[in-house]
Amino acid sequence: MVGRLHFISVAFFICFFVFADILGYSQTTNPCDSTTPVFTIDLTGNPGGFYDIAPLSRVGLCCNATSPNKCIVAFITLDSNSAGLKFEISSGSVPSGALYYQIGCDTPEVVGEFICLNGPGPHVLTFCKPGNNQNGYRISAIPKSVIPDSLNVALGCSIDIGTVGYFVDTSLHWRDITSTNGRYDSFLNCLTGCDTVTFTPDSSAPAYIDYEVCGNLTDTICANNGTSLCKTIRVNIIRITDTIYTVICSNESFTLPDGSIPTSSGVYRDTLTSVMGCDSFLTNYLTINPTK
Fold this sequence. Notes:
Jelly Rolls; mainly beta; Immunoglobulin-like
């Protein structure tokens, strides 16, 4: 009885480690033979970037592949603003038959098609196929549709508002939704077909303006909103102001920023423009006392 229990314990111990090793394939464990070419790819900071693997021959086995298959493996770290990736053959004679790659030794994915992934990874990509032909490969990241929620700009200055993601640029449309008549559309240098627009407010601008940008997505495999996406961006307009209180006698003079010399007490307002084109507003409360 003791021997039987010992056998069951050993069998459970072996199965546990085999199962744990399989789980490790989707994280950082190398699921391939020591002869298999290995690539470490870091696309951090480049959510829509790509990495090219120079032509080479596949060697060794990965995951559940058997001979005559030969494989390569890549450990891929994506940017936090990437939604997934695409693996494709970029050069060389394309092997015959169906072509699949795997992430973490999981469900085979068709070569050349996108796959959505959760988190930066690293994700373990394996590609296996019979044959000795040399091929080059490209691994492309899919950027999430990232648009800022809000931006700040000083009155008189300009700021670029951009979209990051797989939008069809020609489908993008920007519009002012703060006014009822599109009054503030003129603050944008482009309204259609632009993935980046320049916003320049003038003195008539309110404290903030909401713009809506809509566009079609080139690929919807990682989208939750169908084939298109709309997003609202709030642009906060900051007015740079200063107030000065000046007291002089009637036999003295005071020159305002615009070069004029007032002759009576009052409130004088000026708009100043810096070398960067940003406006600031100066209010001068001037008091002229009579000379005794």
